Amino acid sequence: MSKQVLVLNAGYEPLSLVSVRRAIVLLMHEKAELLEATNQMISSASRSIPIPLVIRLVHYVKLPHRRVPATRSAIMLRDAYICQYCGDAPGRAHLTVDHVMPRSRGGLHDWHNLVTACKRCNQKKGSLTPEEAMMHLIRKPFEPSYVALVLLSNPVAAERWEHLMGLSRNRSASEAVFAT
């Protein structure tokens, strides 16, 4: 049985991951509709329903913008564990977080100044700016949405959501995930 169910807002935007139990409660109270389920069933004395994988809320829920702190693991997740200078993916143990504008030169410790870098590139850059070190960023650092990081941290949920987005809209999943 799947441990988490992907909850989409009424407009198909991913909201969160919830337990199967919580998803069933939302379905039973008709606050959500079932979009995708497993072949297994959950039965009670009066009813049987398939175990949900993805549900969609019936009414749109407006949520406040949730900010995620720029932690080492969140930066690496955003950058897909790839060095943003050379493009290598040496594995999490061999990656560091680099300040694009070094802290010694007034750089901030925030989403727009932090990137994943392999140890070799981080040492080569040192306390220089990328321009001074003649190193170019593959992608400009940005602050991802809360939902993007939730989906990136759970590839199974992201795959289910991408499948549904392909069926319901002509918008790429990566565009929707990284919309801020």
Model description:
This protein has 180 residues and is α+β, with helices and mostly antiparallel strands. It contains 6 helices and 6 strands. The strands form 2 sheets. Strands 2-1-4-3 form a 4-stranded mixed β-sheet, with helices on both faces. A two-stranded antiparallel ribbon has the order 5-6. A hairpin with a 5-residue loop joins strand 1 and strand 2.
Indicate the topology.
Blueprint: E1 4-8, E2 14-19, H1 20-28, E3 32-43, E4 48-57, H2 72-78, E5 95-99, E6 114-118, H3 119-125, H4 146-153, H5 155-168, H6 173-177
Parallel strand pairs: 1-4
Antiparallel strand pairs: 1-2, 3-4, 5-6
What is the N-to-C succession of helices and strands? EEHEEHEEHHHH
Instruction: Using the CA coordinates, give the radius of gyration.
Output: 20 Å
SS-based structural class? alpha+beta
Beginning-to-end CA distance, first to last residue:
33 Å
The order of strands across the largest sheet is 2-1-4-3
Q: What's the shape?
A: elongated
Helix content: 25-40%
Which band does the percent of strand residues land in?
Answer: 15-25%
- Sheet of most strands: 4 strands, mixed
Overall structural domain count: 2
Question: How many strand segments?
Answer: 6
- What do the pLDDT scores average to? 86
Note the total helix count.
6
